[in-house]
Amino acid sequence: TQTILLKNRPEGKPTLSDFEFITEDIKETISSGEMLLETAYVSVDPYLRGRMSDAKSYVPPFELNKPIHSGVVAKVIDSKNDKFSEGDYVSGMLDWKTQQISKGEDLLKVDANKAPLSAYLGILGMTGLTAYCGLTQIGKPQAGETLVVSGAAGAVGSVVGQIGKILGLRVVGIAGTDEKIDMLKSKFGFDAGINYNTTDDMKSAIAEAAPDGVDIYFDNVGGPISDAIFFSINKFARIINCGAISVYNNTELPKGLSVQPFLVKNSALMQGFIVSNYAEKFPEAMKQLSEWLSEGKLTYTETIVDGFDNIPKAFIDLFEGKNKGKMIVKI
Ligand code: NDP
After folding, report:
1. How many helices (H) and strands (E) does the chain have?
2. 115-142 burial: b if 16+ Cβ within 10 Å, else e
3. How far is the CA of 128 from the centre of ligand 1 (A)?
4. How many CA within 13 A on the CB side of residue 113?
5. Ligand 1: does its nearest atom lie under 6 Å from the Cβ of 242?
6. Distance in Å, CA 45 to ligand 1 centroid
7. Is the CB of 319 under 6 A from ligand 1?
8. For atom 15 of ligand 1, which residue has the closest CA?
9. Where does the record place the Enoyl reductase (ER) domain (predicted)?
10. Single pTM value for the model
11. How remote is the CA of residue 290 from the centroid of ligand 1, in Å?
12. What number is the ipTM of this complex?
């Protein structure tokens, strides 16, 4: 089986030389309780960057010279496990390997007839759950309010914005290209969009796109984009601190706006969000997301990259904004 190891802890932006491809033998017969899996789709996600560093975080770092793992959909090609049969598809955290043996712990069976398999890594997987739980649990949206989403054209952001529209909010998205801004408005129904790469004065652009101020800010990027939004927050605004991709490759702690005066002045709430803390909400979230999908109220887009060899590149490309919607590698 082909395997991808973490070769070096990246300094700054990850490079292809931080990863190593090896070929390993896989044992010929599986034991009772085990199954042989063949990888079908691999999710690459910004949070993996954090696990490549050895700094303490909410998940332990990857070990050097060990396989990297992330969300994967795999096909069961042989099974001595009571819960899974040959031909089933499963999703869960698995190694970056073309084939692997698993005991099936923490894997879920997924139904290829209900949704395309890749959807279980996006809209019906971790990023969909993040969008739903973050917006509803911390954002506490009320119809008529204004929601601003950064990283709006990505996997989480594009779903946050659409849920905002379903719940009756004015939705403003921030993303890095004009093509993405067009997509936010035409495909996902956002009311307004700002291309941060071509906008000199983000503070004014936000004030213009959110004339009644910002009640909810769903923050996927941190850094200067977020700093600009604090000038427009309303009284009792809620800020969901979901991610900060703009600073993940920094080698020094970011310096920026001091947000406390904005929070105090507006009695605003800013809360860090980690999706795994909301597991008790997942059944409700999955039910609602599936319902909205089948009713056509919610849609999604994916950037599917072909080939196991391209996993590291697809991951690095997240930091270049090469994806629209969920970035997935098809094996
Ligand atoms: P995305 O699909 O949004 O992909 C990343 C996007 O980030 C890129 O497409 C790019 O779009 C944008 N980006 C890259 N560099 C920068 C930069 N310097 N400044 C601004 N934008 C940048 O990824 P996800 O939807 O999977 O994740 C979005 C965020 O949510 C991440 O910060 C991630 O870590 C976080 N997250 C947190 C979770 C949690 O439980 N806390 C769970 C899941 C995700 P563009 O062209 O617009 O720049």
Report:
1. 9, 15
2. bebbbbbbbbbbbbbbbbbbbbbbbebe
3. 13
4. 2
5. yes
6. 8
7. yes
8. 319
9. 14-329
10. 0.97
11. 23
12. 0.99
* Separation CA 22–CA 20 (nearest Å): 6
Q: What is the pLDDT of residues 219-274, one digit of tens each?
A: 999 999 999 999 999 999 999 999 999 999 999 988 889 999 999 999 999 999 99
Is residue 300 packed enough to be buried (19+ CB in 10 Å), middle (13-18) or exposed (0-12)? buried
CB 303 within 8 A of CB 322: yes
Pocket test for ligand 1, best of 220, 271, 329 (most atoms within 8 A of CB): 220
Q: Which two tokens stand for residue 27?
A: 């044992």
Q: Within 10 Å of residue 277's Cβ, how many Cβ atoms?
A: 12
Q: Compute the distance from residue 47 Cα to the ligand 1 centre, in Å.
A: 9
- Type of residue at 324: K
What's the residue count for the chain?
A: 331
Tell me the C-alpha distance between 89 and 112, whole Å: 7
Note the helical H segments in 6-154: 48-52, 126-133
Ligand 1 contacts CB of residue 228 (under 6 A): no
Q: Is the CB of 221 under 6 A from ligand 1?
A: yes
- 27-to-84, 93, 100 alpha-carbon distances in Å: 19, 21, 10
Residue with tokens 């060990």: 66
Query: What is the distance between the alpha carbons of residues 69 and 31, in angstroms, rounded to a whole number?
Result: 23
Tokens of 83: 């819960």
Place of tokens 């997935």: 328
- Structural domains present in the chain: 2-122+301-330 (3.90.180.10), 126-276 (3.40.50.720)
Task: For residue 30, count other CB atoms closer than 10 A to its CB.
Answer: 17
**Which pLDDT belongs to residue 253?**
87
Structure tokens at 247: 């600073």
Rg for the chain, CA atoms, rounded: 20
8 A C-beta contact, residue 89 and residue 75: yes
- Ligand 1 centroid–CA 321 distance in Å is 8
> Which residues of the chain are under the pLDDT cut of 70?
none
Give the position, in ligand 1's atom list, of the atom nearest the Cα of 272.
41
